What we know:
Elements: H1 2-14, H2 18-96, H3 101-108, H4 123-131, H5 139-176, H6 180-186, H7 189-198, H8 202-248
Helix pairs in contact: 1-2, 2-4, 2-8, 3-8, 5-8, 6-7
Amino acid sequence: xxxxxxxxxxxxxxxxxxxxxxxxxxxxxxxxxxxxxxxxxxxxxxxxxxxxxxxxxxxxxxxxxxxxxxxxxxxxxxxxxxxxxxxxxxxxxxxxxxxxxxxxxxxxxxxxxxxxxxxxxxxxxxxxxxxxxxxxxxxxxxxxxxxxxxxxxxxxxxxxxxxxxxxxxxxxxxxxxxxxxxxxxxxxxxxxxxxxxxxxxxxxxxxxxxxxxxxxxxxxxxxxxxxxxxxxxxxxxxxxxxxxxxxxx
Length: 249
């Protein structure tokens, strides 16, 4: 096409037809400009498509992470419910009647010392933050994801700190004689007498029981805090998932 214009322009110059030459020259320039603009538009469209595809990929990844977190949170809430129920059952039995020291010890052994922490799926949000691609995520979703991530980091700190204190306290009371083997031996006719004579004197037994009760009372409170944290996060995740699904559709 440009060769065609150049041929016409040459003929017009040779025939000294300047007016028509200028018209053809302007037409040639206009054609070039249109071509450049079209190329830019196509390039912009391609860049837009790339960014859109990248955004879609991130949204799908976030959705996958959130779905896994939802399942893990639901399981951990059940775990907290079980630990809370164990302690409440012990307290109810203790308050309902006048029971012996051995019954108190037996009741405390039904309260599980088991602990559990949660590992969140943060791969996608960490990539978004480190690469700066967080700006590609729609505004409302981005704000909710960032808030959720902050909530997760805070709850993780509080939970690990409190459970760490529980484990340390349980270890310390173990030094006083509270251990699984000592409890089991205390129930045996012969060995129980030796344990009570050398390890669990009446005064020390009361001290141990009070210490263990206090430790489990603190863990009981911690498990309720954990449940509150996780139920709130579960609700947030449900709402964020709905926003992402709406965006993907």
